[in-house]
Write a structure and sequence with these properties.
Blueprint (H helix, E strand, L loop, with lengths): L4 E7 L2 E2 L5 E2 L4 H10 L1 H26 L13 E9 L6 H16 L22 E8 L5 E8 L9
Parallel strand pairs: 4-5
Antiparallel strand pairs: 1-6, 2-3, 4-6
Length: 159
């Protein structure tokens, strides 16, 4: 495995009542939590970000990916994420809108009370110029497959 590429598989932390896997919280769930109780929404966001960050940290350690905590040594990255859904019940915007928020926060460096894995320096356009989401269905499966590719240098940096 290249030190310029990180791959992570993150299983969903949600299940249906019968115990079968359910896709990670999407945009509709985020809106619903916010309408119900803002503290519940913050708790759910923290839970999802910590779940993703834990799996990302494990993969970083196994693959020798150094955390990007220092702005001077950090490099921009490209992220490709495939959302594996157990069925076709949810639409693309719902799946990606919610899941991508949690994932990018988990990939970013820790700031304030947000726990990130520091696989990427920041999820701003400077540090993450490309993010490619895909959605695929696999009956009875729910997880994210994430690939992070590190660029050699900053775009427009002096040679």
């Amino acid at each position: 495995m290249s030190r310029h590429m990180l791959t992570v598989m993150i299983p969903s932390n949600r299940t249906y009542k019968d115990g079968s896997p359910k896709g990670m919280d999407g945009l509709n769930e985020i809106i619903s939590y916010n309408r119900t109780n803002r503290y519940k929404a913050a708790s759910i966001e923290r839970e999802n970000v910590e779940w993703c960050a834990w799996h990302i940290k494990q993969a970083m350690q196994q693959q020798g990916w150094q955390p990007m905590l220092n702005r001077k040594t950090a490099r921009p990255c490209q992220v490709a994420v495939t959302f594996i859904e157990p069925n076709r019940r949810r639409d693309f915007s719902n799946i990606v809108g919610g899941g991508l928020k949690f994932l990018l926060d988990a990939l970013s460096r820790p700031r304030g009370n947000k726990l990130g894995a520091a696989a990427i320096y920041d999820d701003s356009q400077t540090w993450l110029p490309t993010c490619v989401p895909h959605v695929r269905t696999e009956k009875g499966q729910a997880y994210l497959y994430v690939t992070v590719v590190k660029y050699d240098r900053l775009e427009g940096a002096d040679d």
